[in-house]
Amino acid sequence: MRAMSDNGSLRRGRPGYDQQGILEVAVAAFNQYGYDATSMGVLADRLGLSKSAIYHHFASKDEILERALDDALSALEGVLNEADAAGGRAADRVDQVLRGAVHVLVSKLANVTLLLRVRGNTEVERRALARRRAFDKAVTALVEEAQAEGTLRSDIDASVVSRLLFGMINSIVEWYRPGGREDADKLADDVIAVALDGLRMPTANRVEELLG
Amino acid sequence: MRAMSDNGSLRRGRPGYDQQGILEVAVAAFNQYGYDATSMGVLADRLGLSKSAIYHHFASKDEILERALDDALSALEGVLNEADAAGGRAADRVDQVLRGAVHVLVSKLANVTLLLRVRGNTEVERRALARRRAFDKAVTALVEEAQAEGTLRSDIDASVVSRLLFGMINSIVEWYRPGGREDADKLADDVIAVALDGLRMPTANRVEELLG
DNA sequence: GTCTATATTGAGATAGAC
DNA sequence: GTCTATCTCAATATAGAC
């Protein structure tokens, strides 16, 4: 409740952590070693604190994870809600969701990375997985709409399409590293370009030559 | 060295495990809970053995992981080598590598899944990551060749292209479940279709309408 | 090839002083 | 808000019998 409690990520001085400051360091460690392989001891070392100091801010290791996952999930769900609220053609909403998802991935890279690696070992993890499944289901429904509309090819199953799309998008967390705001836009453009138009040169001969 | 040592996965009777039999159960558990979160105790329970019985077959938990990762990596490297040996246009070799990778993913689903989740916590894991990086690098070189050749669009960086492609392909392990041989071919077809031609209906209006 | 111990380490978490 | 010290439990791994 002190004044400095609200500017977590801006305060970079060593001691006197708030939840946000601890969260950032913890998530980075979780992503580097994996959640299970990251001990409270290692976490304490990274923070320059004792283990018990961490327990002053969080009730358990699990609770740290819960906070980080909720942040990522809320952002992704927000993208979906915005697209739904915007209305319009399904194809436009698909476009909006894909671009929005790329931006969330980039802006909340660490937390989303953590989310994508959750296996469902604990109640916290299982709740997160349930929210992810709901998100995936909504995206699949959107793709189905776009197929019915005639704007997306319908020779591939909608759930396969949405899984491949998000497989591509989600894989960004494996290699993308910060670097500015316009990079996220360019990345989103590239993803959309590959997803909608494919990699083949528009002028190149089609099926026969490449796949023959 | 007994006769039954060579038919591991075919022998389904409970006791009298060989390395292969233990490996399969272990990898399944590693994928379900995550490697670090899977204890030798849980593994023993699943095998219907005591912990010490496992140590008769493997020197350590790490060695079990090493075997599984090597199997997946060797298969993927084999795909690359075959494509290189086949020669021909870069575009054809890209196609061959993508299809081959999908088939390896499907045929060695469990081991590849494990490989894709390795974080680099131990020497074994770091060696596996190094082999993965070498594979990725070779694929990127292949994409560059195809771009220079004029068969793949060159407005997107080759390393981004290969990362998005393999992001899409690798994500298959998250949802694909057995189900027959032709499924793998159909899946490979779908991946190639999305990757090369994109999702947009060939007849639909292009950039202006969808992205406007 | 498997078992019942057991050694040993490190984990998550708590108590209570400052 | 942080510390030292400690509890408790579960982990990997080993010893040695059958």
Task: Please describe what this structure looks like.
The structure is a homodimer of 212-residue chains. Chain A has 212 residues and is mainly alpha-helical. Chain A folds into two domains: 2-59, Arc Repressor Mutant, subunit A; 63-211, Tetracycline Repressor, domain 2 (Orthogonal Bundle), CATH 1.10.357. Helices cover 67% and strands 0% of the residues of chain A. Chain A contains ten helices and no strands. Chain A has helices at 19-33, 40-47, 51-57, 61-86, 90-107, 109-116, 123-149, 158-170, 182-197, 207-211. At the A-B interface, helix 5, helix 8 and helix 9 of A face helix 5, helix 8 and helix 9 of B. Chain A binds a DNA duplex (18 and 18 nucleotides) through residues 15-17, 39-41, 49-53, 55-57, 60-61.
Summary, kept brief:
The structure is a homodimer of 212-residue chains. Chain A is built from ten helices and no strands. Chain A has 212 residues and is mostly helical.
